[in-house]
UniProtKB/TrEMBL annotation:
Residue spans crossing the bilayer: none
Annotated segments matching region N-terminal catalytic PFK domain 1: 1-392
Gene: pfkpa
Location within or outside the cell: Cytoplasm
Region C-terminal regulatory PFK domain 2: start-end pairs: 405-786
Keyword Metal-binding: yes
Domain Phosphofructokinase positions: 20-325, 405-690
Lineage, opening ranks: Eukaryota, Metazoa, Chordata, Craniata, Vertebrata
Function: Catalyzes the phosphorylation of D-fructose 6-phosphate to fructose 1,6-bisphosphate by ATP, the first committing step of glycolysis.
Enzyme class: transferase
Family affiliation: Belongs to the phosphofructokinase type A (PFKA) family. ATP-dependent PFK group I subfamily. Eukaryotic two domain clade 'E' sub-subfamily. Belongs to the phosphofructokinase type A (PFKA) family. ATP-dependent PFK group I subfamily. Eukaryotic two domain clade "E" sub-subfamily.
Residues that, per the record, bind beta-D-fructose 2,6-bisphosphate: 474, 531-535, 569, 576-578, 632, 658, 664-667, 738
Active site (catalytic residues): D168
Name by which UniProt lists this protein: ATP-dependent 6-phosphofructokinase
Gene Ontology MF, one: identical protein binding
Amino acid sequence: MALPDNKKFFENLSGGGKAIAVLTSGGDAQGMNAAVRAVVRMGIYVGAKVYFIHEGYQGMVDGGENIKEASWESVSSMLQVGGTVIGSARCKEFRARDGRLKAAHNLVQHGITNLCVIGGDGSLTGANLFREEWSGLLAELVEQGLIDEEAAQRYSALHIVGMVGSIDNDFCGTDMTIGTDSALHRIIEVVDAIMTTAQSHQRTFVLEVMGRHCGYLALVSALACGADWVLIPEMPPEDGWEDKMCQKLSANRAGMKRLNIIIIAEGAIDFKNKPITAGYVKDLVVRCLGFDTRVTILGHVQRGGTPSAFDRILASRMGVEAVMALLETTANTPAYVVSLCGNQSVRLPLMECVQMTQEVQKAMDEKRFEEAVKLRGRSFENNLKTYKLLAHRKPESDLPVSNFNVAVLNVGAPAAGMNAAVRSAVRVGISEGHKMFAVNDGFEGFYKGQIREIKWADVGGWTGQGGSLLGTKRTLPAKHVEKIAEQMRIHNINALLVIGGFEAYLGLLELLAARGIYDEFCVPMVMVPATVSNNVPGSEFSIGADTALNAITDTCDRIKQSASGTKRRVFIIETMGGYCGYLASVGGLAAGADAAYIYEEPFDIRDLQANVEHLTDKMKTGIQRGLVLRNENSNDNYTTDFIYQLYSEEGKGVFDCRKNVLGHMQQGGAPSPFDRNFGTKIAAKAMQWITKKLTETYRQGRVFANTEDSCCLLGMRRRALVFQPVVQLKDETDFVHRIPKEQWWLKLRPLMKILAKYKTTFDVSDSGQLEHVVRIRPKDLDASTV
């Protein structure tokens, strides 16, 4: 469905209001600027006037120069900047009615009746109170003679839409708040650096991270780095925890581990509500174990730095969605908050979310901690369960004995996060009583017999390592099925977990086809998608794609910065992805690209010419830098060199051109927090499925699984992780170009074009719908993967 014309949009605006104001309030968070940029540009795109309110509610109360009309150019070069460039301040005056009266007067003077508030629950609660009082405030302004009756009628309704900007991820109703992923990046960067020095000196490090009332950052960073112990407000340790922790640290050292990492949320408490500090834990370890122990308090470094690719995309999507929501509100519409549920934008009643958030704190105050964990949401609960499963090894005597052998292998090109997935699979498998086997070098190593048993300690420290420690090859199994079947027979392999990209998917289809000849393949088989290209059918995300996006975004930032202070310049950047344009398109959105050329959206010389003319016009308005991305296989004839030469020739006198082929740097580096966490959780879920299938298919002393649903791909579909028989995915696959026939991210391309000032249509059929907050989501709704 195309975007309705501006006139129709404004007819939807209650009271004839045609102005939108955006403000950031409370603590700052990386990604706020991306949200502000999206609100301004989407607002201007649909014909509204958009205003900045500087310094949050304080600026709204003070008025004057704090309320300024925004232009398209005023949000240029803002995307990659951390914090909030329009400022944020806590305002006591706004908490009093007199302050809100001043704020209302200042808004009416500018004709503003649509507010987009980016902040935490306190900021959003204040906005909702302001909205509820609006008519009374206007009546009071009329009484005082500050506005006339006509103005009161014209601006009779105030519309509010909120976006949650908070690094703590402590707001109920959304899987991720703006800034959380970037804060995790800062934490993991520090942890990775600390681990190298800790290993050198055999030290224990106690790290304190932010989270006064919410342990999300501590929990997920512990999961992402494989910490030995984590302390969070929602899960106070039981009496005697000190002895248990010291036993765990001592056991890990005895197992040849040279370091220990303990992560504490700043609001960590024990069951008696007594704070647990980093200093207390350090003294405890030194006193009981004598380990050389250091404390690192990360503090505000977690709020700083450039926003991650995830936060830029999240904030851009939410900003556009917020404008759409404002334009569709009526006088009876409640204040919304724009939220993320899985991979889908939703609109939730603001006060329902606030009340749920307050319920969490109330449950914690009343020591109903299990309920508090559930109220945090399915994602938080599953993160906690997964951490417990992987971090705390049960004694051998307590483990179930299944007598099943499960093999794990990586197939295709390496992807950051593969090792985290293998570690998770191995440890969950051992916890469930299986004997785990590692296959080196994919299917090639399989038929050559490169198979060995892998133990719990063998995968220690794997989470943060890039590439594939098992080794991976693109070799497909079809030509070697007889030898692979022989190896499965020799090692008595009862189930397969394949972690990889499109080759893994093809390999599973070939093994499925071989079941008719070899009974050895009549075992449960499951694939977990892992490829930077994100081109596997049946899943909207693949392990490794987020790390590649961050590599592209960081490089584009540096490349654009290299041109600062020089004459106007356009950069042509080539990305990987085969025929899949995911990296070019979503990377373009995160980096603020002017165009992204991909195979899925055919283009010709007229499109290239139009893009050059568009950039030329933008440069003449004062924009200094342009960015164009091209997927490596987007077109056989319009190569990166061709596009570079075309732009260079046609831009003469206006801008010059540079090109850069990013290449394999997109596959390298340490995995991002998203990929570590996604790999960990999806592999754990896959292993639990294998255990279930092994139990179901074990008959008369052997495993025999030959149904379609015993050979699956585990992928993320909108809000859920779903097991799908690979044979059913064949109809969804373009095998020639190795891409799915339908790809969700194509709906983000118009968003990139709108934010780059192109006139285009925008599909609103997938925009967020009003939903209501539910206490506990359906069983498989573990949608957030960070």
